[in-house]
Design goal:
heterodimer; A: alpha/beta; Alkaline Phosphatase, subunit A; 9-stranded mixed beta sheet; 3-stranded antiparallel beta sheet; 12 helices; disordered N terminus; B: mainly alpha; two-stranded antiparallel ribbon; 29 helices
Chain lengths: 405, 609
């Protein structure tokens, strides 16, 4: 009984019988969703990857063809001989074999100069601007949450998944309760046989005055409806693909996609301000990039393996770039404009956006942004997810890149 | 089905009989709605058991009914004063017992493994270990030592954490620990960057010493503490080349909040802090690295040093507002009007940043006892754990489940805040995954895992276990440390990098470092919680299951579950015991009572304080 309820919740209410439940749902779910959305064969999925801490974009995609880069970074600038060259001007950080491979396969878009006016140099403030797509202002709800609200105002269950120890502001939604979990093995109520009947009761959300209590009851319902699905998906998932040292939770996303979860929006991150490289950054930064690029390229291979590569795009961002000149501690301080990446089989690879000047910096020696980051968000919302009115989500019109085949 | 109907009927009857005298225990009393935002003090005539319970929940970690009753017999002013001015109360607690893992030569500890091997290659020695003149892998002993200290510091930090948890459980100064926990989230330093448990312990001692005293003393002690200096890279902030990390976080996170200063103020403040550094566990000012030139900071000009900058920060009204607001949100509730924040800031400023004065005002205020404040706080994971232990009458944190892993899973591992901004508090503690985890944690306390393996002894990493097995089987280091190749997609770049240098083997160093560390770090005691719920029931002379359920709700929850849940709990206990007469079940009811408590503590309402 309980199990059947859960499965149905996971299927947008596509009714299925009580028999043959275990293996059929994944397929049924896919067809079910396809019927429920805009006629395309399978609804597209967006995976957002946050690199927290402020990734140093200049040492990620290195402008080795620009002398100014080496003038600003005499010590930590990456020599032309070491970079993984992708053209006569740019090359990837030596640690990024993964990205080099995707780029050469034509599946990686590099968007240059992403930022916003009057940039904040605070991790927390700038990240909040990126999370809410509301620079210098902020918003109660995150842009991914608002996208979910716009595309699926009926708030079907498990439309929005955030794999993390805590919920990101980016997924905060007016109508959806995002499914947030960290370890799928632990995402379940451990109970003894005698306790099951008690736990099977649906949490009551009647007339509750205490707002914290109301919140807890909402979360309790979400937990009840999703935990069995997630645990089962993870138990079934076995991948031979090596995601490297820090998989950034992408194997969990692959597991849920493979299990046919109705989720269209996933949010994961490289956690804990990892990219905040103020001192002796070269080894550390290269390692971080290796892990991130290993994970993303492995995810692409894995999606191909499970036959879902055409349905998924990955968007990667950080809250700011680093200051153009290196500091005296062989590191870099908080900066402004930065790169974004979009990866996927349907992505038209290459460079997007105007490359910011390394000689005309702002008064704080930062890159001046050339691309409002919300243009990339708009590209994902309308170009990828197919929701045309991205202006309603982003509170403004942002020109969309022609990024998808 | 028939059987089920039978016991439902039975319990309905029971409820009708018992309802008359069990109801009063339920009423979670707060003051009138009009008290919201009223900072004037409550009076002795307002004071009762529920108010005392609320105070102890927030100013401490809650307590047993006996402790709450003792507090309720005082006047509110006496009760608050006893909690805030705790130093007069005797509080015998053992000091931290070091394992003795730190060796000469480890300081200053290099920032990375590559930096260590580079240093060893250049100098012929590092970390107090000489490079082998000849033979295989001449740098291996140095690399082993590097990993030894990383591991030893992590393990010893876990012991410091247990020591602190035990203090929180046993202390007669609960507010001292609650404030220390607040400051740990405020001056949030992470062991994984500091990599020295001694500095972490030292920082905690600062929180204990200054936590409810003068904020100026605390801020200076923190700004000059090796843990903080190391965490925010102060050591590289030198004359002519200021590093802004330290100055920025001091203003943004520790004192004023974002938006109350300019980028230029940050650069000028960074100059004032130049030369601040530490040698091992001591703060030092490197005079030749200090920029003693003229600075203009927040509108004032002079040849400021770091303490001058802190004093100018403290002169800003926004500083008192920022801090008072944050303390209020930690102890009372998340929403706070600008007007209220202004008033609280004024209290702190007028008291010359004496934190005790602010705390007394908050805990005595009508606002603190208003419906908006009572039973609306979501417990932090540490608060959840410690208050559960205290309400169960435990004298120390159980060794099973592991306190660090449990609280870490729930999102608040001590000495490991997620970022320099600390923990977000409030609703951010709860996600669907974490809500279930909270119930699972309770189960692990009430029914300790028989297969428990101490994480400070057994290595959780499969990689290292495999290396250990292969070395023990007599394989050479290269073969033993070769990772198993993935079949499809190949091996990730990161996994190929690890075995490329012949001067040393990182994987072996990691294994050997672990081995050396567990040899020297004392084990964490692993007794399970000693719980006797039967005694509570017997001592109180309860006769019916309804009385038991009502008492457990009263004893353990500040916000009771809805009526139908209470009925279901009574029905559950009836079924488990096979009777509603607990006097009959006296000899065998412990397991059933624990199941009952697991259900109660898994309720969403149990998360509320």
């Amino acid at each position: 009984m309980k199990r059947r309820d859960l499965l149905q919740a996971g299927l947008y209410g596509v009714a299925i019988g009580a028999t043959g439940l275990t293996r059929v749902p994944a397929l049924l779910a896919r067809t079910g969703q396809a019927l429920a959305t805009q006629g395309s064969a399978v609804p597209r999925i967006l995976v957002v990857v946050e690199l927290s801490g402020g990734n140093d974009g200049l040492n990620t995609v290195v402008p080795y063809g620009d002398d100014a880069y080496y003038r600003h970074r005499p010590k930590i600038g990456i020599r032309a001989a070491s970079v993984r060259k992708i053209d006569s001007h740019f090359g990837f950080n030596p640690g990024m074999t993964g990205f080099e491979r995707i780029y050469k396969d034509g599946k990686l878009a590099i968007v240059h100069g992403c930022g916003y006016p009057n940039p904040s140099f605070s991790h927390f403030t700038s990240m909040a601007y990126w999370h809410t797509a509301a620079p210098n202002r902020g918003d109660e709800f995150g842009w991914v949450g608002r996208t979910a609200d716009a595309i699926a105002p009926q708030a079907p269950t498990n439309f929005l998944v955030n794999v993390d120890a805590r919920q990101s502001l980016a997924v905060r939604s007016r109508v959806h309760t995002p499914l947030v979990f960290d370890d799928p093995n632990k995402f379940s109520r451990e109970s003894f046989y005698q306790e099951r009947e008690f736990f099977a009761q649906t949490p009551d959300t009647g007339n509750v005055e205490n707002p914290s209590r109301r919140f807890l009851l909402d979360v309790a319902r979400s937990a009840k409806s999703a935990s069995a699905l997630v645990k089962e998906a993870w138990a079934k998932y076995k991948s031979p693909v090596d995601y490297g040292i820090n998989p950034m939770d992408l194997p969990k996303v692959a597991a849920l996609i493979d299990a046919g979860m109705p989720t269209r929006l996933y949010y994961v991150s490289y956690r804990n301000n990892a990219f905040d490289t103020h001192v002796y950054q070269s080894d550390l930064h290269q390692r971080l990039l290796t892990y991130a690029s290993d994970a993303v390229s492995a995810f692409m291979v894995d999606l191909e393996r499970i036959g879902r590569a055409n349905d998924v795009a990955v968007m990667i961002f950080s809250e700011f770039g680093r200051r153009v000149p290196e500091n005296t501690s062989l590191g870099t301080d908080h900066g402004a404009a930065n790169l974004m990446f979009v990866a996927g089989k349907k992505v038209k690879g290459g460079h997007f956006g105007k490359i910011p000047s390394l000689t005309q910096l702002d008064e704080g020696d930062n890159l001046v942004h050339t691309t409002d980051f919300r243009r990339v968000y708009a590209t994902m919302i309308s170009g990828w997810l197919g929701f045309q009115n991205s202006a309603a989500v982003l509170n403004g019109n942002f020109e969309v890149f022609d990024m998808f085949a | 089905m028939l059987r089920r109907l039978k016991w439902l009927a039975l319990t309905t009857a029971t409820v009708t009989i018992m309802a008359a005298y069990s109801a009063p225990a339920f009423a979670q009393k707060s003051g009138p709605v009009q008290w919201q935002n009223d900072l004037s003090p409550i009076t002795a005539s307002d004071w009762n058991y529920d108010f005392a319970a609320h105070l102890l929940e927030r100013a401490g970690f809650g307590g047993t009914p006996e402790e709450i009753q003792a507090l309720s017999r005082l006047t509110p002013a006496q009760a608050v004063r006893q909690l805030v001015n705790f130093r007069s109360i005797e509080n015998p607690l053992p000091p931290f017992e070091h394992s003795g893992v730190h060796d000469p030569g480890l300081e200053p500890f290099p920032e990375s493994r590559p930096a260590v091997t580079k240093m060893a290659k250049e100098k012929g020695e590092a970390l107090g270990i000489k490079v082998k003149p000849d033979g295989d892998r001449p740098l291996q002993p140095v690399v082993n030592k590097f990993f030894y200290w990383l591991r030893a510091s992590v393990l010893e930090t876990q012991r410091v954490s247990y020591w602190w948890a035990n203090r929180m459980v046993a202390t007669r100064h609960p507010l001292e620990e609650k404030m220390a926990l607040f400051w740990h989230g405020h001056f949030a330093v992470n062991e994984s960057k500091v990599r020295d448990y001694r500095k972490m312990l030292g920082q905690l001692e600062v929180f204990h010493k200054h936590g409810s005293g003068s904020f100026r003393d605390l801020l200076i002690a923190e700004a000059q503490h090796p843990a903080m200096l190391s965490f925010l890279d102060a050591g590289v902030n030198v004359k002519g080349a200021p590093n802004e990390n330290f100055a920025r976080e001091i203003m943004e996170l520790f004192s004023m909040g974002v938006g109350n200063y300019t980028e230029k103020d940050i650069r000028e403040a960074a100059r004032a802090f130049t030369g601040w550094n530490y040698v091992d566990l001591k703060f030092v000012v490197n005079k030749d690295q200090h920029d003693d030139g003229q600075k203009t900071f927040l509108g004032k000009t002079g040849n400021f040093d770091g303490v001058d900058v802190i004093d100018i920060i403290l002169q800003q009204p926004v500083t008192a507002r920022f801090l008072a607001g944050k303390i209020y949100r930690y102890f009372v509730r998340q929403d706070l009007s600008a007007d209220q924040q202004e008033k609280l800031g004024a209290v702190l400023r007028n008291a010359n940043y004496n934190l005790a004065a602010l705390l007394e005002t908050i805990f005595l205020s009508r606002d603190f006892y208003s419906p908006a404040s009572v039973g609306t706080q979501i417990k932090s994971p540490v608060q959840l754990a410690i208050s559960t232990f205290r309400k169960l009458g435990l004298k120390e944190a159980p060794g099973v489940p592991d306190f660090n892993i449990a609280t870490g899973t729930l999102g608040q591992r001590l000495f490991s805040p997620p970022t320099v901004a600390g923990w977000a508090e409030g609703r951010s503690w709860i996600t669907p995954g974490l809500l279930l985890e909270r119930g699972n944690f309770i189960r692990d306390i009430l029914f300790p895992d028989i297969n428990f393996v101490p994480p400070d002894r057994a290595n959780p990493s499969a990689d290292i276990r495999i290396v250990a097995d292969k070395i023990a089987a007599g394989l050479d280091i290269s073969t033993a440390t070769m990772p198993d190749r993935g079949s499809e997609g190949g091996l990730a770049e990161a996994n190929m990098l690890a075995d490329r240098d012949e001067d040393f083997n990182t994987r072996y160093g990691s294994f050997r470092g672990w081995q050396m560390a567990i040899e020297r770090v004392k084990p964490i005691p692993r007794h399970a919680a000693s719980i006797n719920l039967t005694r509570i029931v017997v001592d109180a002379g309860f006769k019916t299951t309804t009385q038991v359920v009502d008492h457990f709700i009263y004893r353990f929850m500040r916000v009771p579950p809805p009526g139908e849940k209470r009925q279901a709990l009574i029905a559950f206990l009836d079924r488990e015991l096979g009777t509603n007469d607990v006097t009959v079940a006296r000899t065998y009811m412990e397991d059933s009572l624990r199941l009952l408590l697991h259900l109660i503590m898994s309720e969403p309402e149990y998360q509320l304080s």
